[in-house]
Each structure stands twice: as C-alpha cells, then as structure tokens.
Design brief:
The chain has 327 residues and is of the alpha/beta class. It has helices at residues 23-30, 34-48, 92-104, 121-136, 152-159, 175-178, 184-196, 213-224, 254-267, 284-292, 312-321; strands at 53-63, 109-114, 140-144, 163-165, 200-202, 205-207, 232-237, 272-275, 297-299, 303-304, 307-308, 325-326. Helix content is 37%, strand content 15%. Helix 3 runs parallel beside helix 4, helix 4 (121-136) packs parallel to helix 5 (152-159) and helix 9 (254-267) packs parallel to helix 10 (284-292).
Length: 327
C-alpha cells in the first residue's frame, strides 16, 4: 500500500429501534460527507422498501383561501396580500370527480386540504361524505383540515379516512418566527387526537424558511421522536409566493435539501418520505438523488393546494427515466 494512500474509516451511524434521538445526533448525520450520507440512507431504504417503487398522492384544495392563521409561507392567509381569494368549499360531486381523475392518472392516495384554523362541526360534516365516496373509489384517503377538536378525528375515521396530515413545519425554537396565531403544542395536541382515533399520521415540515441547519435537525428530531413515528413524512421545499412574509427567504443549496431527505430516511426508516412541495423548481437530477436518498412518495398532479407542481406527463416521463414504478 502506498504511503500516501488514505483509508477512509466510516463512522458508525446512530440507530434507534426505540428511544429518543437528540438534536446533536441528527446534526451529526447532516454533517456526514454528502455522498456517504446518501449512500447510508439508500442502504437503510432498501432494508424497509422496494427502491423501485414510489407512492403517488394527489392533493386537492377543497376550501381555498380566507384562513385566519398567519403562517408566514402561506398565500391562503387573510393576513397576507396575495392573489389567492377566499373561495367557497367545493361540492361533493366536484371532489369525487377530481378523485376519479386522479385514480385514472395513477394516484393511489387522494388528499383533501381546507384553509381552516380547524374545522367547525358543520364544516366537518360536509367533508365526511367526500371521504366516504373517495374511499369507495378504492383510493387511500387523507385530509388536512387544521387543528381538530375532541371527537372530530373519530368522525373522520368512521367515514373511512386513512391518513390525517398535520405538519410541524419547523423546529420548536424556530416556530414562533413563522407562525404567531397558534402554538407548537397545538399541533402536537392534534397529532395526539389523530393517533387516539386510530388514524395514520402524515407529518413533516418545510425547508427554506430562513432556518439554520440546527433548526432542520430540530425538526427531524421532533418528527423522529413522535411515538409511533409518522407513517408518512412530507419534506417540502418552500415555494415563495409574492405577498407572504417569506417571499424573500434566502435560497438554500440544493444539497441541503437532499441531506434533509437522507436524514429523514435514516431516522425514520419505516416511514414513507414524501418529496413534496417545490418539485417544480427541482432539476430532474436533484429529484433522482432524493429518490436515491430514500424519498419514496410524491405529490402527483399539476397543483398543490394553490402552488404549481410538475404535471402528470412530466412525472410519468421522469419515473420512466429512473425506472421507478408506482405502488
């Protein structure tokens, strides 16, 4: 062996069958050499999933605009001057028609979102028939309606809902910089109600909110320490919308987003990690690295609530290039 040859000793990857991750441990994963981190995440991904299959979800906004919350990234907030108007709730027939089209295009899960702080009981009742009829189409069902009150998660479960989405958005210490109209504990309380009703949890966050790497590690730590861990973990890249407080947020390097996907896979090995908002601005090669690093779910369709998404034909072409097939 040459005297100037370097042997790279791979440090051990922290592993948790049970117990709690620390922010320091998650930061250590982020700090691994980029290619090593992606490789390790790919190894773990293959232990839990078929790496050639991707879960396809379609997201529909059934009630757009007029939200009383002040989330700094959201164009649907009444606190921000954006082009998104307050619109009435869609009818059951309109929602079912959209679900039928999503299934015809290959989606396996249909997610319904509403711009509410939380649903009033009357609002919720209108959604239950939507859930029932979408479920009857043979699709998995998901809803994101905001904060839930006692008994509402049970009603959604009874109507056939499979997943409830409620994101933590960012780290606890960063949260107040992004949202002032609700507390971090409010989100955890709703997640507890969802679990108590026997629903699967879809819970993730957003990258690009002017956060630090420590903040990103704090978000992943919170998600990984939920017990049980979320079945679905959407990782969103901020879509900057004119009129929102975060329209001028600093761009993060693309490698940092891929690192976040990889760290999510390593800390939540059995969860679906969804490459979510922001894909329209991601080159195909970047998306391919995300899939290699453990992403195995995408939003599929030309719109995410109010912002753009790659169209169906573009996604089909990308999946074909990468030899990936839908679940």
């Amino acid at each position: 062996m040459s005297s100037n040859q370097i042997i790279f000793q791979r440090p051990a990857t922290p592993h948790r069958e049970s117990g709690q991750w620390s922010v320091a441990e998650v930061e250590a994963l982020y700090a691994l050499p980029f290619m090593e981190l992606v490789f390790r995440a790919a190894e773990v991904h293959r232990q839990y999933f078929d790496p050639t299959r991707v879960q396809l979800s379609t997201l529909l906004s059934i009630k757009t605009g007029g939200c009383p919350e002040d989330c700094g990234y959201c164009p649907q907030s009444v606190h921000h001057d954006t082009p998104v108007p307050n619109q009435p709730m869609m009818t059951v027939d309109e929602v079912v028609a959209a679900a039928r089209a999503a299934k015809a295009n290959g989606a396996g899960r249909f997610c319904m979102g509403a711009a509410w702080r939380g649903p009033k009981d009357a609002d919720l009742e209108q959604t239950l028939d939507m859930v029932r009829q979408v479920k009857e189409l043979g699709l998995e069902t998901c809803a994101t309606f905001g904060l839930l009150k006692d008994g509402q998660a049970e009603k959604l479960k009874g109507a056939g809902l499979d997943y409830y989405n409620h994101n933590l958005d960012t780290a606890p210490d960063k949260y107040a910089d992004i949202i002032q109209t609700r507390e971090y504990e409010d989100r955890l309380d709703t997640l507890g109600k969802v679990r108590g009703a026997g629903l699967s949890v879809c819970c993730g966050g957003i990258v690009g909110l002017n956060e630090t790497r420590e903040d990103r590690a704090g978000l992943i730590t919170q998600l990984a320490n939920l017990d049980p861990q979320p079945e679905s973990v959407p990782i969103n890249s901020l879509v900057k919308v004119e009129g929102t407080p975060l329209e001028g947020a600093e761009e993060i390097d693309w490698t940092e987003f891929v690192r976040t996907i990889a760290v999510a896979r390593l800390t939540m090995p059995a969860s679906y990690v969804r490459l979510s908002a922001g894909r329209r601005g991601m080159p195909e090669a970047m998306q391919a690295l995300c899939f290699l690093a453990g992403a195995n779910s995408i939003f599929y369709g030309d719109k995410l609530l109010t912002t753009g998404n790659p169209d169906v034909e573009a996604d089909r072409a990308l999946l074909t290039k990468l030899d990936l097939a839908p679940l």
